[in-house]
Amino acid sequence: MKALVSWFADRTSLGKGLTWLADSPVPGGACWCQVWPATILFLVCVQAITGFILWTYYSPSAQTAWESVYFVQYHVLGGWLLRAMHHYSAHVLLGVLIIFVVQTIVTRACRAPRELVFWIIVGLGLCALAAALTGDLLAWDRNGYAATKTRTGFLTMLPLVGDGLLKLAIGGPGPALGHHSLTRFFALHVGLFGAGLAVLLALYVVFARRAAVVLAADEQAEPYWPRQAWRSAAACLAVMVVVLALCLQHGARLPQAGAPLGSPADTDPANAYAAARPEWFLVGVYEFSHLFPGQWGIMPIFIVPGGLVCILLLMPFAARYLLGHIFNLVFTAAVLIALVVMSWVSLAKDRADPAYRAAVAAEEQQAERVCQLAEHLGIPATGGLTLLHNDPKTEGPRLFVQHCDSCHSHAGDRAAGGDIAAEKPSAPNLAGFASRGWLAGLLDPKQIGGPAYFGNTRFRSGKMVGFVKDTLADQDESGKKDLQRVIKALSAEAELASQRELDAKDAQEIAEGRKLIVGDFGCTDCHQFHDKGALGKAPKLTGYGSPQWIAGLISNPADKHYYGNLNDRMPAYAPSSAPTQNLLTVHQIKMLCNWLRGEWWEEGVRGQGSEVRD
């Protein structure tokens, strides 16, 4: 064994390197305050190892980035832990570097002959910050996309060169990010800032050793091995415990385990994520920027941070003098206190903002939903975002808010995307539309003229409201039973998946109800029902509430099959109806229809529209 070790040492000079390290002088003797360089090296090694493994799975494009991260998170054995270690070790690295910089300032260890050492430490901090910011986009989820889009947008504030820098940074004219943006950010994250950390660490070892030799001549010193080495090893172990604790803070079971992964980024401005926030180390800067609106935004983003870095780099010269050292201490304390206060203010605002909390909750639900869809349906070649765009449960509420909730509410059906309340409702509440419950309210004399139905429309004093209030009020038991048959028959026209079993069970009553619609109830005096009645007076009842019926109404409510000339302000959304209107595609109309009908895939639920029909 001795011969083997001797041979290896002779061929590699490893023994000399270890001796050089072990004999490195520690000015002032072994101390816990000198463990930071070792922990920084340890964390960078963790970053390099985990980052390389993630690199083997990662595919930087707008249709594969989120998908490859999803695969690592949910389908690679231990992938969630690997990704979490890479994510949280980056945060801990930045925190350790901040502590190291502050400690160096407080102890005046930035004075000669350690000026270069201090500047390298600052460079490590800036490099770690840049690596964290460029890595934020790589998961290509909504929060990372929105936060990066905001940060890159700041470049346009720079006079003369701003637009050019933006194009260079994101690989296009902007403001949207895309394939080239991911390629550039990935190259910066790994090639520039990752390699930069390694180079700066090597320079730190060289210059820190030179400075230690000089200081050892004037101060009591001892070799790095063994006392300082054991302290450094213990500190590295403690740092690893912290990283693992952060990785396991949500448990070790998916989907909660590990670092968060939001839903796929959507470049459509209409789907922008308003609740995007930076990581903890920039929350204070984010809040500080709110104090400089408009054209003054360049101050908190470029001028003030640039000035702070310049002052930081000049601190070694100020530290030579007592007054300069006092200035360094006061300045550092003021900056740290300001950042803490601004961060606390920002977090307090978010906690008190119901819109922010609602947006975060909606994003968490959407992230969970897309993972369920990916697990059940698989990810198509067009990417994970397609799963959401083809999911009525996700796409329906979004389209409803964009196009419908200025008049309609969708309140009372949390399973279908939560309650959506119009600010000033002027049309019926569409939650549960065409279901037996919804129709029972429509044909209730006490409800039809209320705000949930026709109370805020031009039809509140029309024939339908008058018929219900005059004819259907104060019915005897036989009349009430007939009304229930009519409701069942009309609702059966929709063929709702949620009522499929009930419709089959009540087939006889439904058949009787259809006879009543064209008979005693006289519905065909105004409405068309199959081959009875005429078009043009009121909406047809054939297929009432079916996908085709709802799609037709959304496409053109003024069509003779619906409201004709009596249409009350509802616009036509069909692509061929009016080029100047805010139109919906055929696919979007389909998603909205199926959401209103409650038809979408749901895990563990049968008969809930697992196959969305055209």
Alpha plus pi helix count: 23
Terminal-residue CA separation: 75 Å
DSSP E strands, number: 2
Low-confidence segments: 606-614
Précis, in short:
This protein is mostly helical and 614 residues long. It has helices at residues 2-12, 14-22, 36-55, 65-75, 79-106, 115-138, 142-153, 162-170, 179-216, 227-247, 283-289, 298-318, 322-351, 354-377, 384-389, 392-403, 436-442, 463-471, 477-492, 500-505, 507-518, 547-555, 586-596, and strands at residues 25-27, 221-223.
Structure description:
The chain is mainly α and 614 residues long. The chain folds into 3 domains: 237 residues, Cytochrome Bc1 Complex, Chain C (Up-down Bundle); 76 residues, no CATH class; 229 residues, no CATH class. The chain is built from 23 helices and 2 strands. A two-stranded antiparallel ribbon has the order 1-2. The C terminus is likely disordered.
